[in-house]
């Protein structure tokens, strides 16, 4: 779950995938262990998995926006307004 939270936080720095992928892997492992009876925290694994996916998806969207130039144009418009 912590890796998932970190992936959401560091999305601001275009780095959500670096914590998102480990969060996805750890979330899956946590859910499998809970299903096998080795752990009791299936909800934590699910939350980590979901947050990891969200962080990775935000990263991918940011990269697409940067490649297409949309975010650069948006930043320029915000700077001109302020």
Walkthrough of the structure:
Helices cover 82% and strands 0% of the residues. It has helices spanning 2-9, 16-35, 42-68, 70-81.
List keywords for this structure.
82 residues; mainly alpha; 82% helix; 4 helices
Task: Please work out how many helical segments DSSP would assign.
Answer: 4
What structural class do helix, strand and pairing data support?
A: mainly alpha
- State the distance separating the first and last CA atoms: 37 Å
| Average predicted local confidence, pLDDT | 83
> What is the N-to-C order of secondary-structure elements (H for helix, E for strand)?
HHHH
Number of strands: 0
Q: If you compute it from the alpha carbons, what radius of gyration comes out, rounded to the nearest whole angstrom?
A: 16 Å
Largest sheet: none
What form results from the Cα inertia axes? elongated
Poorly predicted parts: none
Amount of helix = over 70%
